[in-house]
Amino acid sequence: MRQLHLNLFIHGRGHHEAAWRHPAASPLGLADIRYYTGLAQQAEAGLFDSIFLADTLAVGDDVAHAPRAWLEPVTALAAIAGATRRIGLIATCSTTYTEPYNLARQFASLDHISGGRVGWNIVTTWLAAAGRNYGEEAQPSHAGRYARAEEYMQAVTALWDSWADDAVLDDRAAGRYAAPGRIRRIDHAGAHYRVAGPLNLPRGPQGRPVFVQAGSSETGRGFAARHAEAVFTAQMEKATAVEFYADLKARAAALGRPANQVLVLPGLCPVIGGTEAEAQRIWRELGDLSDPEVGRQRLSGRFGGHDFTHLPLDRPLAPEDFPDPATVQAARSRTEVIVGLVRREAPTLRQLLDYLAGARGHFVTLGTPEQVADLIEDWFTTGAADGFNLMPPVLPAMLGGFIEQVVPLLQRRGLFRREYGAETLRGHYGLPRPEARFPGHP
Amino acid sequence: MRQLHLNLFIHGRGHHEAAWRHPAASPLGLADIRYYTGLAQQAEAGLFDSIFLADTLAVGDDVAHAPRAWLEPVTALAAIAGATRRIGLIATCSTTYTEPYNLARQFASLDHISGGRVGWNIVTTWLAAAGRNYGEEAQPSHAGRYARAEEYMQAVTALWDSWADDAVLDDRAAGRYAAPGRIRRIDHAGAHYRVAGPLNLPRGPQGRPVFVQAGSSETGRGFAARHAEAVFTAQMEKATAVEFYADLKARAAALGRPANQVLVLPGLCPVIGGTEAEAQRIWRELGDLSDPEVGRQRLSGRFGGHDFTHLPLDRPLAPEDFPDPATVQAARSRTEVIVGLVRREAPTLRQLLDYLAGARGHFVTLGTPEQVADLIEDWFTTGAADGFNLMPPVLPAMLGGFIEQVVPLLQRRGLFRREYGAETLRGHYGLPRPEARFPGHP
């Protein structure tokens, strides 16, 4: 039977905007590695496939009012690797602001360190403030970032393939460390990058990290269909999730890729109560801790700095209140999702901010453990998801609630593993281990 | 009483060129994190101040005959941090090939992860093959690399100082995460870098990583006097070590820096036997495992690819057999040391390669534990060293021998700690914690 995949998305003290202030949130600081290690161990005890650290390459303007700072993902996951044994470890890293040789090395090293458990969430970085931390006056356009990312993928994949799996002999008696024909230069020379190679460490247990992607714009979907092995996506309703799922699988199939090698994992923020009323109470409690002005500033950031200052909180919104998503050189797909919601439901700004506070435009559901399990089963069995990018509102408490109350229901229904069946992230996700391709050297 | 500092330099399966083939070397692979973790724990049990991982940004041409590949240092040390509690962790990272914002973040993150134990070995990277992995046809000149490195230090130091120590409030009740006046942009805009800042994580326990440097050329000494808090240096005899020590302390003093805040740690490769004859036997055994043609190729690499192919192994060398070190755009100080040795002692090429095989131009000494302790005490008390960058010929066995046989002698003489007295690397090295300087914002 087809099995569900669960990834824990670690973000601040939870995904709700006010999580960091909630009494059930972790008492630890956000630069304390024990916080992250503890969550990873908790998710591993819950048999999750993986954990995931997002990233932003600049501190948020609203850091006075919200925790916009965290450990750097690659170093954090290297530390977490030693404190876990099975769970996959997915780090975000930017193609726009990291040298290909450095990225390829660090992820290969992480794959060795973790025994084959690393995944790379490929981002092109849309934040103008990030560009200013990397010498740029104006950030490259959305299309420009993706064009560079395409070439970047060629270069780093070639680096990961520059050592054959059997390259290391380590023959101490004969004094032969490596089989020389099995380590090759890549001589990548494109419009944006020149990388001679080979990489300076042996191929990792997984060959390459698992490729994860989260861009859902038209350009992002094309990129995901070509490269991604797992896709994190933000969907605000099942109908769009089904559309996205079908579209991405079709795009992958058109490129000759098997549908089960491109997993679609929508974000899911479950607010779980013993009764529906209790879930509602928890949600209101979180809303009461939120500041709509923090939300307004965040919304402005999403729309490339657009000024929403004068928009009243309590009149219904119209699409005309927003700039055209096609003109936003940012995380375009998320802006499309928000304007789509406004078009369908005409919420007030206060209602919109209240919803976005839950999980920043990902799907939020309130209910009992049974209801959450029903929703997961429904999306999983009717073409909306291969699993979920779980975004608990408050960490670690509401991850604990999900593991204790929802996971057993999923197991009882035969949807989720009762023990780990594999050692690597590729194994958990059911993905093949790629052969080294030796590009440029047929 | 002034105390000796000991750093374990981890390199392959030991510092002797043939270590990887030696029967006493670790059975683990060189991409196996357990190898590095085990050495760090061993050094910590021996109360060492720190461990150190060097780095090279390209695979060696002679990888067929020697292990020229290893884990990436930053990720490896993040993993080691969790497996150790007290020992300092020093990673090499290149100013020429790493974005300042990325380096500042990863080292700040490592400092948080390790609880204030991280050091940064600042290198400008001299290898032409490295440049070709980063888009360069020709590598920047020796002087050009150092000019960029000066500006780089300004930018990363400003990033580490962009959060005041008291910036994080994490006041959950009041909804105030940070004191906004205590997190500031750096707006660095120089000839080579533009970095707006601030950094996106709080200041680490040490404020900044401990700055380590190993360039010993004229330019390198000036850079070390300005920035380094510990200097690893390669000296082939005590006389040059004394000269270097006095020169560096004088340069630092001229800049107003206290002499005890620039520690000088020469490399030391001790070949220890129960008797002198046994030490000689161990040395010959290692020599017998070495291939002079591997050494010849390495020597060529040191001299910027100069061709030594036709030089006979067994006639005495003269300085004219080498290119002028001033013309070598590489690790210039090491080439000066080698040509100096040739001028003084006129060894044959075979003898030179045999010596360099021991520790690549660092000081090698053969003797009993008493003799090694005598040498350490002599250098330490007569102005040649503040401690040593220990380079055991074979790992982990010969580190174990040093800890079991030499460390107790040093302790008995009152030269070395009997327990850790501090929690951070700055504490071990006796260095102050720097105040945040808030550059550009007086």
Task: State the CATH topology of chain A.
Answer: TIM Barrel
What class would the helix/strand composition of chain A place it in?
Answer: alpha/beta
Largest interface: A-B, 73 and 73 residues
CATH superfamily of chain A: Luciferase-like domain
Would you spell out the secondary-structure blueprint of this structure?
The structure is a homodimer of 442-residue chains.
Chain A: E1 5-10, H1 33-45, E2 50-53, H2 73-81, E3 88-94, H3 100-114, E4 118-123, H4 128-131, H5 142-160, E5 168-171, E6 176-178, E7 188-189, E8 194-195, E9 210-213, H6 218-227, E10 230-233, H7 238-254, E11 263-272, H8 276-288, H9 292-302, H10 332-345, H11 349-359, E12 363-367, H12 369-381, E13 387-390, H13 397-412, H14 425-429
Parallel strand pairs in A: 1-2, 1-13, 2-3, 3-4, 4-9, 9-10, 10-11, 11-12, 11-13
Antiparallel strand pairs in A: 5-6, 7-8
What does this structure look like?
Two copies of one chain form a homodimer. Chain A is of the alpha/beta class. Chain A has 14 helices and 13 strands. Helices cover 38% and strands 14% of the residues of chain A. In chain A, strands 1-2-3-4-9-10-11-13 form an eight-stranded parallel barrel, surrounded by eight helices. The relative contact order of chain A is 0.17. The model of chain A has no long low-confidence stretch (mean pLDDT 93). At the A-B interface, helix 2, helix 3, strand 6 and strand 8 of A face helix 2, helix 3, strand 6 and strand 8 of B. Chains A, B: Residues 21-384 form the Luciferase-like domain.
